[in-house]
Specification:
The complex is a heterodimer. Chain A is mainly alpha-helical. In chain A, 77% of the residues lie in helices and 0% in strands. Chain B is mostly helical. The chains are: A mainly alpha, B mainly alpha.
Chain lengths: 325, 306
């Protein structure tokens, strides 16, 4: 319990850090957002518009600490400001309308990659020197060396443009009304294949190699020898004895990757013009929509922290040694 | 190399197995994987250096009609604007490798200082540095990268700065763990007792003994630097007037190379990034095998048999 509270404190501190970063960046960076927008519009902005924008950003003449207090207060009341590119939609509305797609894409890809990768790792480690163990790791390292947005471009070109097997952009066909019916869901699924596939391709190697290496270390433990000596079946030893213990680091990785779900599909979303907060973040950057940018960054950070905290909770249950420490 | 020599020199058992005394670099060259990786890296470095000789002139100059498939005149075809893709790729290597290696070196240096200080001083210093490290580790990298790049004035130095800020933390954690285990060794205690200065102990006693971890860290940071730079530039957040593999991909995507089927506009740069990352990964893998016998004994035995 004390451990959990301590972790909670740490995550709150981390959140505070990103909150403060968000506050500090527009105020201390050379060239504040408003003057940059002014430059971008070639000076066609009126003075009162500028004043309004400054107010929108919270960049007024109040002392810094007062600005800071009201900023923190508004964030905790769920007020992230108003989006500029989608004026006058509140930032929170923009984010909540987009985050579902990100969660779908990232979640599906993560689960497939983690399950498949760990299984491959277990089998590879169990058959040291086998085909899976010698051919797969170098191959996966090679595939994992590609920038994943480039793999996404390749997949888009090959399966979207050349072969025409899968749709090339967006999450569902224009003109389709979202709803829980077979037609819509299957349409969503076909749009999901390519982006999810590219994420799985680049991330599966990490899962496999991580699992393989911990499995190798675990397989050298005495209790495995003991289990073998008892004459237990190899598959039982493999899954019940070795894999179960070797899985612990993967749980931590899963937590880290859960954070990746929200922020990590970003480039894939951009390549496939897939709706989601990653794509939205780029749109915000291009449109100099600072409130939206900051809101998305804060949301992603919060998601990462929350995911890690949840994993901490799970980990305490899974590994009794943590509780003793 | 020096690390293992020092390690063996300081230990009284001069009869250490020969393989331990041969030094990391020698062992790396002996490893087929590492050799392949090093040759590949050297090749890229050479091509980058020789770019002005091989494809003279401004690579972004428009000197042909757009979107030509590879031919004798343009080995890798031309972009939609009519620039020579081969020239863009070779010149792009300069910026990509420069930024990648600079980021790798600086991020590793930061990680070394933080990791060593945390491990050496312990207590409050350790707690504070670990806290900062963990926070940086947790903050999502790419979004942080984007936010920072969006607020800072565009340019190569911004890209480097942003990548170092977001890239050092993971390495610092690894180096701290390693340094901590060495901190507990007797020879460090001896140095402390003889009144050596902390800086000297950190960099002369502890650091040389972690050469392989530092090497792995450096290589990892370079891979990160090259990849993250490409990602940032692909999003148009780098300096789009600089020719690099990332900006090549940005323009290819912007000019609709994907939709018009001009695969030659985006394949070379991506392939180069992957080959460099793969080459570094090969070296890294070999370092791992050399320092962690458990990973290689099976295979070595198999090779002997075959």
């Amino acid at each position: 319990m004390r451990l959990i509270l301590r972790n909670l404190g740490f995550y709150l501190l981390a959140f505070w850090a990103s909150l403060t970063l968000n506050f500090v960046l527009p105020r201390f960076m050379p060239g504040d957002p408003v003057s940059r927008m002014f430059a971008q519009t070639q000076g066609t902005m009126q003075p009162d518009q500028i004043a309004q924008l400054r107010k929108l950003f919270g960049l007024d003449n109040r002392p810094l600490w007062e600005q800071y207090v009201s900023y923190v207060k508004s964030v905790f009341t769920g007020d992230l400001g108003i989006s500029i590119t989608r004026f006058p939609t509140p930032v929170t509305d923009v984010i909540s309308s987009q985050i579902g797609w990100t969660l779908l894409l990232g979640g599906v890809a993560l689960v497939i990659a983690a399950v498949l990768g760990n299984l491959l790792g277990i089998v590879a480690a169990w058959r040291r020197g086998g085909v899976l163990d010698s051919a797969f790791p170098p191959l996966l390292i090679f595939v994992g060396s590609f920038p994943y947005f480039w793999l996404a471009m390749g997949a888009l070109y090959l399966f979207g443009v050349s072969l025409g097997w899968f749709p090339m952009r967006h999450a569902y066909d224009v003109g389709l009304t979202p709803g829980f019916n077979g037609e819509f869901l299957s349409n969503v699924a076909t749009h999901l294949v390519l982006p999810a596939l590219t994420i799985v391709l680049v991330s599966i190697g990490g899962w496999m190699l991580g699992m393989r290496n911990t499995m190798i270390a675990t397989a050298a433990e005495d209790y495995i020898t003991m289990a073998e000596a008892k004459g237990l079946s190899p598959s039982r030893i493999m899954f019940r004895y070795a894999a179960r213990n070797a899985l612990l680091p993967s749980v931590t990785n899963f937590g880290m990757a859960l954070g990746f779900v929200v922020g990590g599909a970003l480039l894939t979303e951009v390549v496939f013009a897939y709706p989601g907060i990653g794509y939205q973040l780029l749109m915000a950057v291009q449109g100099l929509d600072y409130p939206l940018m900051q809101g998305i960054f804060l949301t992603i950070t919060a998601a990462v922290l929350l995911a890690n905290f949840l994993v901490d909770l799970v980990y305490v249950r899974l590994d009794p040694r943590v509780r003793v420490r | 190399m020096t690390a293992i020599e020092i390690a063996t020199a300081t230990t009284p058992t001069a009869t250490a197995p020969t393989s331990r005394r041969r030094g990391l670099l020698r062992q790396l060259i002996d490893s087929k994987k590492a050799l392949a990786g090093l040759i590949l890296l050297a090749l890229f470095a050479l091509l980058a250096l020789l770019a002005p000789l091989l494809v003279p002139g401004d690579p972004s100059l428009i000197n042909s009609t757009g979107s030509q498939a590879p031919s004798a005149a343009h080995w890798l075809g031309t972009t939609a604007k009519g620039q020579d893709v081969l020239a863009l790729t070779l010149w792009g290597a300069r910026s990509s490798l420069f930024v990648g290696f600079t980021v790798g070196l600086v991020a590793t240096a930061v990680a070394i200082v933080v990791g060593l200080a945390a491990a050496y001083f312990g207590r409050v210093v350790d707690d504070a540095l670990t806290l900062v490290t963990n926070i940086f580790l947790l903050l999502p990298g790419l979004p942080l990268l984007i936010i920072l790049a969006a607020f800072l004035p565009p340019g190569t130095s911004t890209v480097i700065l942003v990548l170092v800020v977001t890239g050092w933390a993971g390495s610092a954690r690894v180096l701290r763990a390693q340094a901590k285990s060495i901190r507990g060794k007797d020879f460090v205690a001896a140095a402390v007792v003889t009144g050596e200065r902390p800086l000297r102990i950190m960099f002369r006693e502890i650091l040389p003994n972690m050469a392989s971890v530092v090497m792995t860290t450096l290589l990892g940071c370079v891979i990160f630097g090259i990849g993250a730079q490409a990602g940032l530039e692909f999003l148009g957040l780098g300096d789009s007037s600089v020719v690099s593999w990332g900006t090549n991909l940005y323009w290819a995507s912007n000019d609709g190379a994907l939709m018009t089927g001009a695969w030659w506009a985006f394949v070379p740069s991506g392939l180069c990034i992957a080959l460099v990352a793969f080459a570094i990964a090969l070296v890294n893998y070999a370092v791992d095998e050399i320092t962690n016998p458990r990973l290689r004994n099976r295979r070595a035995r198999r090779e002997r048999r075959g």
